[in-house]
Structures are given as C-alpha cells and as structure tokens.
Amino acid sequence: MIWQLDLLILTLVVICGIGSLMIKDLLGAAILFGAYSFMMCVLWAVMGAVDVALTEASVGAGVSTVFFVATVFHTTRRTKD
Amino acid sequence: MRILGILVCVTTGAMLIWASGEFPPWGDPNSPASLHVSPRYIEKTMEETSVPNAVTSVLADYRGYDTMFETTVIFAAGVSCFMLLRLFSGRERSFQHYRHILTGLTLRVRRKGKELPELEEFEPMDSLWTPYDLILRTLCRFLLPFIQLFALYVIAHGHHSPGGGFQGGVILGASMIFLAISQDMRSALRRIRERTLAIFSVAGVATYAGTGTLCLLLGSNFLDYGALSRIFPVDPVGARSLGIFFVEVGVGIAVMATMIVIYHNLASEGFLDEGL
Fold first, then answer.
1. Chain A: residue nearest B54 by CA?
2. How is chain B split into domains, by residue range?
3. Which among B34, B202, B249, B255 has most CB atoms closer than 10 A?
4. How far is CA B119 from CA B99, B102, B166, in A?
C-alpha cells in the first residue's frame, strides 16, 4: 500500500482510539469506536488477513456498535468522570 | 489517582512500542511464526482437505477443537446476557401505548397486573414512537433479503473466499436486528420468536459437537471429518471439506441466534416488547 495512505489510516486509528476514551458523550464514543474498528478492518485487509478483516467489519464495526448504541439509549448520554 | 493511571498507561505503551522494534518485519518468511507449522498447512491443505482457503481449513479442521469452544463462548455470552437482563413473567412495564388505526388517536393504558385485550382497531405502539416513514420502511424491506442472501453466501462460500460461520452468522443476525430497528421489536419477534432463538443457539453448538461425535462413532477421532466418507458418498478428502461445511453451518446458526438474543435483551431492558 502507498505508505502515505497507510500512515493516514494509522493516525486515524490512534485518534479514534484516544477520542473514544476521552469524549464525554457516550453515543459519540460508541460511534468513534465503530470508526476505530473500521480503520482496523482496512488495515487487516491491507496486510492480507482478509478473514480477520471481514470479522472486524461485521463484529467490530457492525454489531458491537449497535449493541453500544442500544445500551447508551438506556443510560445517561454523558459520562460523569 | 488519575495521573498515576495515565503514567501506568504511558509507561506500558512505551514499553510495548519499544518491544515491537524487536519483531521480525511484516511478511518475513524466516520469522519464527512462519517456520514452525505454517509451511505444512500451506503445502498440505489442498491435498488433505480440498479447501482452497487455508484459513478456513485451519480454523475448522486442524484447529477444530478450538473453534468448538469459541462457539461455546459465544453461546455462553448469549446465555449470560439473557440471565442478567431478561425479566421473566409477572414483571411488565406499568403502561402501554396504543394507537387507534383509523383515527391515529393515541391511548396510554395503565396496566395493573391484568392482561390487556387484543383489539383489531388498536395496535400496540412503542413509547418512544417515531412517525411512520414509508421510504425508510420500504427501503429496509427491499434491503433485507439481499443482506440475508449475502450472509448465506459468506457461510457457504467460506471454503473458497474469506468468510465462514462466524462472519456469516453475524451478518445474518444483523439482518434481523436491522428489521427490529427499522420496523419495531414486536414485528421482528413475530418473525423469529424468543423460544426459536434459544433453540437455534443450542442447536448450532449441538451441530458442531454432533459432527465431532459422529466422527467418533464412525471409528475416528473426535472432529476427524475423514470418517464421514463412510456414510456420505464422498472420498475421505472430500469428507473433510464436507465436515468443515457442517461445522460452519452450526457456528453460523449459533452466532446468529446469540446476536439477536443479546440485541433484544439489551435494547428492550429485558422486557422484550419495544426497542430502539
């Protein structure tokens, strides 16, 4: 892969990971975590681990984001800490 | 305390990054991981199992025992979600919204332990009801069969392309979650009931373990699919490919049912009547 693109995706992974920990809005954190999973999926696919990429896309970016959103829906949207 | 936590995080992260410098470069054929068993899998997969996708054959055949317990872990996750969240009979929401279909009038009925009568003119409604959206509902209904077809393709074509039971099962479960989000949870539960889901999630794990036991009964080791050639009209190599397929179907069923159970219980706080 073009190394500039690779570097961009890696930077976005780090930003999404730290952002989903730091952000006060839980719904935003869930969405950021989905974005993080999707970036990881792209990285797996680039490295040739296509099976892992498909798992990451369906489980990490798909279903777990839905689970997080469904859970945030029943709690307060902002964290206390 | 906070500063201490950040300090521990940064130190561990720095040590991990420092240690990753010692790793062999990516794709190095002389790295320890690619010297031990990988060459055998890559060279022998085709002649031993006739499965072109080496990942699938390692996952479901060479490491089949591992995958069986992975499926059991998923099943256990579904069961624990059910046990923690599900509210059993006698615990119901204290009120229920109804809509008069002809006039659009909304009623809020307080229930006091009594069963509410089912009337034709009224339909039950979510308390956080969003207006009926024709475009959204029709689009979702058009999209659903394609998602499910793709999921079946991912399960059945896992021998040749990336995919398999786990991924296909998740996509199949996601299609039913999609139905529950786009319509409402009641119509999704009418399609596939809670009891059916419970039976499915057990049946999936049982299919996996049953395939292994069948091999045992036919005189081979547990999960040694070559023995299946005695009851199916295929040669021992083809039988291993067939065994992988059975196992993948079992995994797919178990994962699908578990994903739907977890979603229903999370989204409805265990009441299983209305969700997102």
1. A51
2. 1-36, 52-90+129-267
3. B255
4. 11, 13, 42
